[in-house]
Amino acid sequence: MPMDGLTVGFAARELDRILKGGRIDRITQPEKDTAVLLIRAGNENHRLLLCASPNNARCHLTQINYPNPLEPPSLCMLMRKQLSGGRILEIRQVGGDRIVHVDMETVNEMGDRVMRRLVLEIMGRHSNLILLDENGRILEAARHVNPEMSRVRQIQPGMAYLPPPSQDKLDPETLTADELYERVREAAPGRFSRTIADRITGLSRPAAEELALRVLAPGEEWPEDLRGACEKLEGLLKRLPDMADPRVLLDGDGNAEEVFAFPYLSRDTGRQKAYSTLSAAIEACFGSRDAKDRLNQKSASMLRTLKTHIERCEKKLAMQEEELASAARMEEYRMMGEAINANLYRLKKGMTEATLPNWFSPEGGEITVPMDIRLTPSQNAQRYFKKYQKARSARETAAVQRDKTLEELDYLEGMLLDVDKCTGESELEEIRQELVRTGYVKRVTNRRQQRQLPQSKPYRFRSSDGIEILVGKNAAQNDRLTLGARPEEMWLHAKDMPGSHVIIRAEGEIPPETLKEAALLAAWFSKGQRSSLVPIDYTRRKFVKKPSGAAPGKVIYTHHKTAYMTATEEEIKKIARMEE
C-alpha cells in the first residue's frame, strides 16, 4: 500500500525533529525520480531519501548507500549548485495531504541568504520531486509536465509552482468536531470509515477503518451519536502525533505488506513488527519492493530481447530439423537412380513410372520409380543423382547449422535463467555486458545511464552442518566463483543444462546432508528447477577446467559423480540463507 497522508504526516514530523538545522553536505540522484541528501545534524550523518517513484514514492532516512550514474542528471547538478552547504529550516506536511516541503536556507551566487524548497508530491503515477526558488518558481523537476500531458497543471522550469488541485477536504491537523459534523451529517448512514475517508484529506481506507474502530462502539459501523463520534475523532487526531510507535505488517511468509505509524488495532497485531523509527519501518516495507520493481523495469527490455532471440532460434531449429527430415530420402534417390541405370534397355522416354527390381533390399522385391515424361531414362537417372547430392549436402549443412543453433539456444536460455536469478543491479549489469560482448544488446554510450556498480556477489547459504555453500547468479559470477575456489572444495552443476555453479566451502569429507543440500540448490538454480530427478554432477574443484577462449560460465570437468535431485520450494526455504 502506498504511503497515505496520515503516515506522511508522521514521517515529516520525525524528519523535522532529526534534521532541523542540519547542514547539507552532499547530494546524489541514484534514479531519475529519487534524490538522496547527506545531512549533518546532531553530530551525526543522515541520508534523507526523497523518492517520487510511481509505485513506491516516500520520504525517510535511509541506511542504503545507493550507486549513482557516472554523470549526474540535470536536477542533481542544479540541486548541488543551489543547496550544497545550506541548512534545513523545516520539513513539514502540507494540509494533511501527501505533499512534503523541505525548506532550506542557502547562499546564492551574490552571497545573499535565500530560501530554497524541495517539494515531494506523493501522488501515484503523478508523483514528482520539484525544486523551487524563493519566489515559488520552478527551477527543475524530476518529471516535466507539458500542456499536452496536462492542461490543468504544468511543471516546467521557469513557471510558477502551483500545488495539486484542492479536493475540498478537511485538514486532519486543524479540523474541528463542528466542521466534521457538518460534513458527515449530509451523508447517508453507511460505513463511517468510508464517509470520513471521503471528507478528510490523506486518509487511506485502512487508516480510516482504524480511526473509525477507535471512536465507534464495538461492532458499530455508523455511530448512534454522530456528534459524539466527531468529537472523539477530533480528539484522536490531535493525540496522534504522541502515538508514534512504528509497525510493519507482515504476511504469512514474513514479507512486509504495509507500514503503520502506530499499532493498528483493526489489523492482526501479532503480525505487526515494531521498529525504533518510522524511517526504518518505511525502508523495511518499501526498500526491497522498490529495488525489485526497478530491477524488473531495467530487466524488461533485456528479457524481451532474450525471448525474441530464443523464439527466432526455435523457428530456425524447426526449419533445420525439417531439412534434415527431407534429407533422409537421399538414399532413396540414389537407389532410384541406380535402378534406372541398370535397366536402361527396358525403359523408354515418355513413361510416367517404372517398376524395377530392387537389388538394394535384402528381401528383394520391386521398386516403383516415378519418371519425368519429358526426359530420357538416362536423364531421369541423372535427375535422381542430382537430388541425392543436393540432399546429402543439405544434410551436412543442416546438421552443422542445427548444432550451432542448439548451442545458441542453450546460451540464450542460460542468460534468461541468469536474469531471473538477479537480486541487484550489479548482477544485471554483468549480464548486460556479456550480451553486449556477444552482440545481442547495444553498448550504452550515454554516461548518465551508466553506473558505478560494485562487483556482484553470489547467493550464500549455510548447510544444516554449518558449512557455507555459494551459488552463482550469472555466467560471469560462475567463473569467479569456480576459478576462485580452493582445489579440494566440492563443485556442483546441473548436467547438460544451464544452471548455477555451486561451491561447498569445505575440503576433505563432505557430510552427506551438506552434499544433499548443495545438490538441491544446484537443481533449483538451474533450467530443471521445477523438474523431477534433475541430474547433478559433482566433483572436486581441481578437476574443473575452463578451456581457453570459452564463454563465461563454460567449463569441462572429470572424476565426477551424478546425483538425481527433485528440489521443491519448501526444501530450499529450509536451507539457511545468509546475508550477501
List the helices and strands and how they pair.
Blueprint: H1 5-19, E1 23-31, E2 34-41, E3 44-51, E4 58-61, H2 74-83, E5 87-93, E6 99-107, E7 113-121, E8 128-132, E9 138-141, H3 177-184, H4 192-199, H5 205-215, H6 226-239, E10 247-250, E11 256-260, E12 272-274, H7 278-327, H8 330-342, E13 353-357, E14 366-370, H9 377-421, H10 425-437, E15 459-462, E16 468-471, H11 475-483, E17 490-494, E18 502-504, H12 512-524, E19 534-540, E20 544-545, E21 556-557, E22 561-565, H13 569-574, E23 576-578
Antiparallel strand pairs: 1-2, 2-3, 3-4, 5-6, 6-7, 7-8, 8-9, 10-11, 10-12, 13-14, 15-16, 15-23, 16-18, 17-18, 17-19, 19-22, 20-21
Helix pairs in contact: 3-6, 4-5, 5-6, 7-9, 8-9
Tally of separate helices: 13
Give a quick account of the main beta sheet: strands, pairing sense, barrel closure. 7 strands, antiparallel
Strand order of the largest sheet: 22-19-17-18-16-15-23
Radius of gyration: 35 Å
Question: What does the overall shape look like?
Answer: elongated
